[in-house]
Design a protein that fits this description.
With 393 residues, the protein is of the alpha/beta class. It is built from twelve helices and 17 strands. α7 runs antiparallel to α10 (356-366) and α8 (266-272) packs antiparallel against α9. The two termini are 34 Å apart. The relative contact order is 0.10. Residues 1-9 have low confidence and may be disordered.
Amino acid sequence: MAKSREPDDELDAVEVLDHLVERAVAMKASDIHIEPKRAALRVRYRIDGVMVDQGILPREVGPSLITRVKVLGRMDMTERRLPQDGQFSLEVGGKLAHLRASTFPAIHGETLVMRVLMGHQLIPMDRLGLDDTELWAAQRLVTRPNGLIIVCGPTGSGKTSTLYSMLQQMDTAELSVVTLEDPIEVEFSHVTQGQANVRQGFTFATGLRAILRQDPDVIMVGEMRDGETAQIALQAALTGHLVLTTLHTSSTAETVARLCDLGVEPWIVANALLAVVAQRLVRKLCACAEDHALPNDLLGEEDDSDRVLLAAGTMVRRARGCERCHRTGYVGRTGIFEVLELDDELRELVKARPSTKALRAHQKRLGVRGLRETGLERVRRGVTSLEEVLRVT
């Protein structure tokens, strides 16, 4: 971490910011957190989804560092009492790092969080973590001429990366592909990309209406946030467009039920929806991981609580920690997925506005693995730890 010294001028703020971003990129951090405390600035990086302490900076550097970021992000330098956000780019090691900055007035000064976006970090679909069956299903789905595909999961579960991977699979030179995002994280050469701006009234719903007048073949909507957006997206899927979007739900069954709760007619959901992909990100074990035997049986959940998922005595790998993994025990992440395609029987079930429990029961009859089961398969293979799978599922 930068040593304590007196950063009184603009040059010091420039150097500190450059150092923080360069180090974050080298450590593959997704976010930089700078938190003012009574005596110092606490610096933490989010690495593989988990906060990792990076030490402290002298408290005096805070104001000039915040001002530097506000200048780059075109924020109001004089406003310290209200939250602000902006974005800017810095060159790091010959590559451009795009940063989304957000300030928040806290008790000891303004907290600064910067999301680090490396535009070159597109992930091919076959490296997302899908197994062979799931990969084949996903590759087939993106060739469909119309319908709605939803990727669901909590914030930070990799939904946008999956949507970008799906776009990579398409022949964007032959198709008219239009996106509406907030913000645009990766630029595509053959894709028309739009950025929502709620302050100016350019919401996902108004943007989606405008896109439909642009003669698109494929539409990607960053997120379905309300019933109006969901209604327009489903109507577009019914009228000859392939629509890709995300929803903040935890499972495939919950997603189908949520669409009906948003006020969309169940018959529209049943006819327009092609598939739901639920996902989570799990950290991959470092080479320093060690073997250990499970002390107790791991049982299923809810109505499946009698089933033993992993028996006591099963040998699995667990995190230990070394220099290579910064003592975390993990290096990098991979996805675990639950892919539910709608068949005729499920469409009829959806028209009757089923409960989440009824949808889960049908999913079980279809043999669709849940997220936890998929995760445990990775545990058996030594890719990740049991603790990690239980944490995210």
